[in-house]
Design goal:
alpha/beta; 10-stranded mixed sheet; 22 helices
Amino acid sequence: MASVAEAYVFLTYLKVLFLTVTTYLTCTAHNSPTRPMFSVFTSYNDSLEKTHGLPTNLSWSQLASTVGEDKTSSSCQPVGIYSIQRHGSRYPEQRIITTYQTFFSRIARSRINEEFAYLKNEPLDRFTVEKAECLTDKGYNELLEISARYPARLFPLFRDPVSIFTQSSFQSTETNRTKESAEAFISGLCKECRFITPKHDEDKLILVMKDGKIYSEIHWLPILHDPLLLPKISSGICKDSIAIEEHSREFYSFKNSPFVEEVLHHVISRLDYTGDFSMTLDELQSLYEICATEMNLFGASNWCKLFSQSDLRAMEYLYDLQEYWYSSYGYRINYLPYCVLLQDIASHLESSVASGSTSTKKIFKFAHSTTIQGLFALLGLYRTSVIPTADNYPLDGNWEYRGGIISPYAANIVFSVFRCAGRSTLPNAIGDVKVLITHNEQPLKIGPCDSYYCDLTTLTSYLRSKVGSCDLDEICGGVVRDLPMKT
């Protein structure tokens, strides 16, 4: 019996030792390749670093050579673009900031572990209600840097200021962070352009160069009437069909699971000095988002030091559950309404190469994580082999649906159209036509396309098969509502 008891004690000791070691493996080890991400709060560059993709400064021909498709695309020239871009890094939403401020004031009055006493000196004005969900300076620069690479990548479309804004269209959602992201993007496209103070109109933002010769407009629609970029909430039928509680079920189930409770216990144990300190799960959630934002903005965070690597993985999974079930494959109503956007993409790809067409050649849309994820799910991209739930959290941290990879801040999906030598398979088009799809500036194969530079007719046929009837009354009304909506 003694040997059994001794073995039990030894195993318990090993478990405690393991937890103690992981406690000190905090996110300050910023360059660790195994460090967790922060779901959709991950910065653009951190996401690129995690995926180890191709360099983002390649021209379209260099990219073709890198992926071994230079022979099939050597005679091609870019003639059109359709880009969907998420806004850049933002501040947390108001409820997170309010909860954080309340928690911080309690920390300031409490006797906490001396090791973390410096937390009482954190600058409270770093996160204020006035900044809630606003674009950060880093977010502005993310868009500036991404767009600055377009002229080198697709030079014929961006030879000079005139060509940049000729036959171009810029549309954002109604939020300030997407409008400002669009403004940053336009400034990055044209480095020599010096815009005067933007003029705000009721439904557009006008950017005029100092010499008055060139201007650009950023248009938007009211949030509740934007069927292209926010179809889920712009359609009254869709909006009425969405049960937030149902879509967030897995999120709250995991939030109240032993895994997140253990994270809460770890954080309390690091702060606690008297044994009387308490903390709620909502406060834990606010600290995590503050930690994520500071890591994004500054590359380091004192609040992150309260979390171990395993703690951060559990919190990342919590937020990835929310993304999967609220914005992606969890329910068909999350992505089927994006048929409107997909239909617009397919039509633009065809019209940009039609003989004698005077239509807009370059389309840029600025939206949200839900837009990116909804479109991807409709296209069948990043579908997981295992449906993530609160009950199947992988302890090794390897799950498939990663918001930090799919839709970090400034995430983008771009359809670049090329006219090539040869006979076209598309009526009224001049020459053979190919389309390169990139996700976060990395080439992407889709559906029936067996190469990155995909035949236009093959691609648009596939896109239209995904569009279907695109009847929002049917999608958001009785047919989908009355059937189980889980995929």
